[in-house]
Amino acid sequence: MNAEDYTPEQMAGQRLMVGFDGTTFNAELKFLIEDLKVGGIILFARNIESPAQVAELCRSVQVCANGCGQPPLFIAVDQEGGLVARLKRPFTEFPGNSAMTGVEDADHFAAVTAAELKSVGINMNMAPVLDVAPLGFGSVMEGRAFGHDPAWVARLGCHVIKGLQAGGIMAVAKHFPGIGRTLLDSHLALPMVDLDPTDIETVDLPPFVAAVEASVSGVMLSHILYRKIDPKWPASLSVRIARDLLRSRMGFGGLVLTDDLDMGAVNRHFGISEIIQRIVLADIDIALICHKSPKIVQAYENLVKVMDADLQAVLAPTSSLRRILMKKKDL
């Protein structure tokens, strides 16, 4: 199907990536794919038992999507290694980014991880983490970052990106524009950063600039309020950060995703209708909702209204729908 053939309902669904309960294809997944027409799902430990089970789950959801006339689903997982790795043994377990001593480690991680994800039908990895964690700062990302030097983070991160994508797995760099200098966990509350834009450009942005140059498939936005860039909206809802900085200034034409909209940083401060309005305004492609909740249906309904009201913008050559469909052609 071409973008012009999509209904507002299909367009809305393609903008959603959602989590679910269970380890097998079930009524919940059937509803998400057939009724809400979601464009992607994300797997967590609660969905994973064994390689064979994951492979059957991924096969089943793709069969369902195909059977109801939908394009292939993005099937994502957080497989960073170390502290955040949803796939445990018998999948290969790595010590994580902070333990890498050179590009050989990054290449090995990417090659093995890509092969294992592809073997079970997963096509997107929410990795690598490109946050720069300063020494002695107590960063919330200290155990997950490659290190404290932007050039080092950029170098190893790009090796991971290129290795994953060479193996057929879309890489998603996170958490733009960088959360290495935050102490508060955005799962719980809304962290605020008072850094000058020039400081962010010197320390936090270089790994993401390198990722864009390496043709990373996706970039995930953080739920951090960078008050000297946008005093009102966190990056995940910010026109100034997502559209003006990432898209316009840095020239990123791939997929832009929010972090999980269930997290306290946004969930406690903004309603779903307001969130969806901001996502569309900021030229963000995919809203990520990682847990079963009424919020998924509410997000879908709000997106349908937007798609229906502004069909011309939705079908523009640079629109989110077209970016999503271009990525899905490779699947």
From TrEMBL:
<comment type="similarity">
    <text>Belongs to the glycosyl hydrolase 3 family.</text>
</comment>
<dbReference type="Pfam" id="PF00933">
    <property type="entry name" value="Glyco_hydro_3"/>
</dbReference>
<dbReference type="InterPro" id="IPR017853">
    <property type="entry name" value="GH"/>
</dbReference>
<dbReference type="InterPro" id="IPR001764">
    <property type="entry name" value="Glyco_hydro_3_N"/>
</dbReference>
<dbReference type="InterPro" id="IPR050226">
    <property type="entry name" value="NagZ_Beta-hexosaminidase"/>
</dbReference>
<dbReference type="GO" id="GO:0009254">
    <property type="term" value="P:peptidoglycan turnover"/>
</dbReference>
<dbReference type="GO" id="GO:0004553">
    <property type="term" value="F:hydrolase activity, hydrolyzing O-glycosyl compounds"/>
</dbReference>
<dbReference type="InterPro" id="IPR036962">
    <property type="entry name" value="Glyco_hydro_3_N_sf"/>
</dbReference>
<feature type="domain" description="Glycoside hydrolase family 3 N-terminal">
    <location>
        <begin position="14"/>
        <end position="308"/>
    </location>
</feature>
<keyword id="KW-0378">Hydrolase</keyword>
<dbReference type="GO" id="GO:0005975">
    <property type="term" value="P:carbohydrate metabolic process"/>
</dbReference>
<protein>
    <submittedName>
        <fullName>Glycoside hydrolase family 3 domain protein</fullName>
    </submittedName>
</protein>
<keyword id="KW-0326">Glycosidase</keyword>
<dbReference type="InterPro" id="IPR019800">
    <property type="entry name" value="Glyco_hydro_3_AS"/>
</dbReference>
